[in-house]
Structures are given as structure tokens and as C-alpha cells.
């Protein structure tokens, strides 16, 4: 239990607070309320207040709040305030807060945010805290998931979620049309983009406002929707050196044209700006990460399931999401590191496994993850999640990702408004994105 594992730390903290006059630092054993060092006890000293930032829906936030409540019970000298920031705004707002010294003490980071913050030196090295604590079981974490946070022998974060992109599908709509489901086609080795488009056309019903497919959760977050499509067709966003834009290629044009045709030619995909959601029951197939199960499990109007992404000439192109916890520049690095260790412990990941794909072997390779909830089934999780991780790829990072992301999103408006052809759009992207990569 998390509670038992951390009682030792709490006892040690109280011992130091009560028996070590003049102890400094940002922990619970600092100055008392009057500002006189060493005169207070644990009962009267000022409580350290941490801020922890995250994005996510209400169910995910409530889960973290439950973990934080337990952390505070184990650490009576530390309080934690949760800051929720929409994912689309997260990196920009965090950058502003770091620059103005109003940033949280610790928080979530996605893969695209990490290179910029590492380059700017705004993350705290936590190597000693996690490696030298035998109760933390650092070796339990998959080594490959730590690479993005490493710089030589230093470590700047711990991943807690590595979810692949997958297909959510409305089983009732497939049954109604007499179609084989994506899972059935995958088991037969036939689940590719040809079958995907056939299903999308069959499921689409304009009279009832039903679309066969939707690739985007947020129209302002292009990469989650399009990277698997690009990669499955053999296209790359950047060249191998990460110095120039590479999507303006025959494979890139084919993939982006397919996306455009779904919306404007075949009309099997909602038009840009349409906020129709999968849980409405009017989307046949929907692309999102495994963490979307936190919303899908609330659906009661229809049966649903998950399946791997369809295959193109270069495989499924499955992209691997990535979320970790880091300590930012803070006056309380020791306390923030304790919170990080708590949130990324095996016990905590056993709780978060209901929504997130854990990075700890002891959790991912056990029934804790496969049977964390009644839906989806253990078989579906095995096929769509565990079997895909080995070949899935993490989205490419760049220290100027914020500018690159904004530029690509802005130029995509030309596709969404049909003011630019795919060829014109990719040519313009190459001209305007490559200079940002230098």
C-alpha cells in the first residue's frame, strides 16, 4: 500500500522537525510562523504548499485528487493544489508561468513539451531521489520509456502513461449494417485502410446525421489525428536529422489527400469545426488514445469496443502517446520530488491504470491493467494496446515544437477552408516550417 510504504518518510520528517533546531530548507522542518529558525515544532511550522499541474477530463482529475488526498495524509506538512490547464493551452501557459516564476512545483508533461523545457533548463534533475530510494523500485520502470527525459547521467522526469492511438468503434452501428467489426477484421489479418474506408462509407447515414469516422478529438490538435495516418503511408514529419520538414513527399500527399477526401469527397467524416463526439452514438469509428476510455465507460446508449489502427503500406503507424511527471524550478524541490515519487509509484500506477497505460513492468504485465475495469475486455486491451506497443512510435520532439505546431495548425486552415490543394499546402508548409527547425 502507498500509505504503508511512505510512513517511514513521514516519521523521519517529524523527527527532523522536532529534534533538529535550526534546520533550514524548503521542507516541513524550516522556520516557524514567526520567522525564527529552529524555534517551532512540526505542529506549529508553516505548511509547505505545492502546486501540481495537469490536463485531462473530470474523471482523470478526480482520480489524481484521490491520490493527492492520500499523499497529504501521509505528509501532514505538505499541501497540494491541483491546477487544471486545457491540453491545447498547456505548453504555452506553462512556459509563461515558468518565465514569470509563477509555475507549479511539479506536473504532467507530454512528449512534445519536454525538449523545449530541457533546453531551457527549467526541469529539476531527480536522479538521486528516484535511483537511491530502495522503496521506489526504479528498475521496475521500462528503460526505453525514460530516454526522452534523460541527458547523460541526469534524469528530469518519470513517465506514467504511454498509450497508443487506437480505434474506438460503435458495435451497435456495425451490427445494424451487418458489417464485420475492426476487431474481427484484425484477427483475420484484413484490417487495413481499404477495409477502414469501406466500413466508413457503409456506416455513414446523412439522414440520421451519422458519420462513419472521426479522426480528431480537438481540431486544434492536428498531430494526434494525423501522425498515425502519415506514418502508416510511409510519410515522415521531419527528416532523420530533425533539421527540415519532410512531409512534402508523395507519401505525405497521399495520406493528407485521404484525410481531405474523407471530409469533402466521401463525406464520411464530420466537417472542420464540427464538435460531434463519439459518445453521441453518431460516430462509427473514432481515433483517440487509450485514456479516452475514461469517457467511453460512461456511455450507456450503445455498445462499444477498441481495435488497433488500420494498416497502410508501412504498417499501422501507431503513435505512442507519452505523459510524465517532472519537477519544475521550485523553492521546494525535495517536497516536489516526494510528490513525484508518490504519483509514479507502482501502487499509484495500479490506480491510474484504469485510464493510462503504465510504464512500470509490475503493473503493465499483470492483470491489474488488463482487468482494471469491465470495459473494454481484457482481449481487446491485449490486441489494441499491449500488442501494439512494441512497434508504436513516440511523436518527434523539437525544442521549437511550440512554434512548429502553431505554424502547421495555422496552415492546415487552408485545407479546412478548401482554399489550398494538398500539393499547395505541403509546399507552403515546407517553406515555412523548415526555417523554424534550424
Features:
single chain; 13 strands; 18 helices; 13% strand; 41% helix; alpha/beta; globular; four-stranded mixed sheet; 438 residues; five-stranded mixed sheet
What is the secondary structure topology, with strand pairs?
Blueprint: H1 2-19, E1 48-54, H2 58-74, E2 78-84, H3 87-99, E3 106-110, H4 114-119, H5 127-131, E4 150-151, E5 154-155, E6 158-161, E7 165-170, H6 171-176, H7 182-187, H8 193-203, E8 211-214, H9 222-232, H10 250-264, E9 283-289, H11 293-296, E10 304-307, E11 319-320, E12 323-327, H12 333-343, H13 346-352, H14 361-364, H15 367-370, H16 378-389, E13 393-394, H17 401-416, H18 422-433
Parallel strand pairs: 1-2, 1-3, 8-9, 11-13
Antiparallel strand pairs: 3-12, 4-5, 6-12, 7-9, 7-10
Distance between the termini: 49 Å
Largest sheet: 5 strands, mixed
Helix content: 40-55%
Instruction: State which percent range the strand residues make up.
Output: 5-15%
Physical arrangement of strands within the biggest beta sheet? 2-1-3-12-6
What is the number of helical segments per DSSP (H or I, 4+ residues)? 18
* Oligomeric state as shown: single chain
- Could you tell me the number of beta strands? 13
Residue-averaged pLDDT = 88
Shape label: globular
Secondary structural class: alpha/beta
Rg computed from alpha carbons, rounded to a whole number of angstroms: 24 Å
Given as residue ranges, the uncertain stretches (5+ residues, pLDDT < 50) are 1-44
Amino acid at each position: 500500500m502507498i500509505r504503508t510504504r511512505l510512513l517511514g518518510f513521514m516519521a523521519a520528517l517529524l523527527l527532523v522537525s522536532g529534534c533538529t533546531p535550526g534546520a533550514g530548507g524548503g521542507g516541513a522542518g524550516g522556520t516557524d510562523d514567526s520567522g525564527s529558525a529552529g524555534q517551532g515544532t512540526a505542529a506549529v511550522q508553516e505548511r509547505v504548499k505545492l502546486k501540481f499541474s495537469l490536463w485531462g477530463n473530470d474523471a482523470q482529475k478526480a482520480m489524481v485528487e484521490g491520490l493527492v488526498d492520500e499523499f497529504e495524509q501521509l505528509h501532514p506538512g505538505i499541501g497540494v493544489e491541483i491546477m487544471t490547464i486545457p491540453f491545447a493551452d498547456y505548453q504555452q501557459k506553462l512556459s509563461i508561468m515558468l518565465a514569470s516564476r509563477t509555475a507549479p512545483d511539479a506536473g504532467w508533461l507530454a512528449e512534445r513539451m519536454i525538449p523545449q523545457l530541457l533546453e531551457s533548463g527549467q526541469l529539476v534533475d531527480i536522479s538521486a531521489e528516484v535511483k537511491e530510494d530502495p522503496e521506489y523500485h526504479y528498475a521496475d520502470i521500462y528503460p526505453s520509456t525514460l530516454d526522452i527525459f534523460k541527458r547523460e547521467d541526469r534524469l528530469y522526469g518519470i513517465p506514467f502513461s504511454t498509450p497508443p492511438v487506437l480505434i474506438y468503434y460503435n458495435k451497435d452501428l456495425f451490427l445494424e449494417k451487418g458489417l464485420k467489426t475492426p476487431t474481427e477484421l484484425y484477427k483475420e489479418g484484413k484490417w487495413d485502410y481499404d477495409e477502414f474506408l469501406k466500413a466508413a462509407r457503409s456506416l455513414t447515414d446523412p439522414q440520421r446525421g451519422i458519420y462513419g469516422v472521426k479522426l480528431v478529438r480537438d481540431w486544434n490538435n492536428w498531430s494526434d489525428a494525423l501522425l498515425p495516418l502519415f506514418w502508416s503511408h510511409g510519410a515522415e514529419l521531419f527528416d532523420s536529422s530533425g533539421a527540415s520538414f519532410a512531409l512534402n513527399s508523395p507519401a505525405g500527399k497521399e495520406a493528407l489527400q485521404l484525410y481531405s477526401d474523407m471530409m469533402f469527397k466521401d463525406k464520411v467524416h464530420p466537417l472542420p469545426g464540427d464538435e460531434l463526439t463519439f459518445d453521441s452514438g453518431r460516430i462509427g469509428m473514432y481515433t483517440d488514445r487509450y485514456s479516452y476510455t475514461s469517457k467511453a465507460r460512461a456511455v450507456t446508449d450503445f455498445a462499444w469496443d477498441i481495435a488497433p489502427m488500420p494498416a497502410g503500406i508501412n504498417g499501422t503507424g501507431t503513435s505512442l502517446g507519452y505523459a510524465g511527471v517532472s519537477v519544475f524550478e521550485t523553492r521546494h524541490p525535495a517536497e516536489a520530488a516526494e510528490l513525484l515519487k508518490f504519483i509514479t509509484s507502482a501502487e499509484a500506477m495500479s490506480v491510474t491504470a484504469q485510464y493510462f497505460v503504465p510504464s512500470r513492468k509490475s503493473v503493465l504485465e499483470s492483470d491489474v491493467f488488463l482487468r482494471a475495469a469491465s470495459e473494454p475486455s481484457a482481449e481487446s486491451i491485449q490486441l489494441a494496446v499491449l500488442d501494439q506497443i512494441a512497434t508504436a512510435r513516440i511523436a518527434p520532439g523539437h525544442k521549437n515544437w511550440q512554434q512548429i505546431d502553431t505554424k502547421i495548425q495555422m496552415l492546415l486552415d487552408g485545407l479546412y477552408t478548401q482554399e489550398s490543394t494538398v500539393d499547395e499546402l505541403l509546399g507552403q508548409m515546407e517553406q515555412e516550417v523548415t526555417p523554424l527547425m534550424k
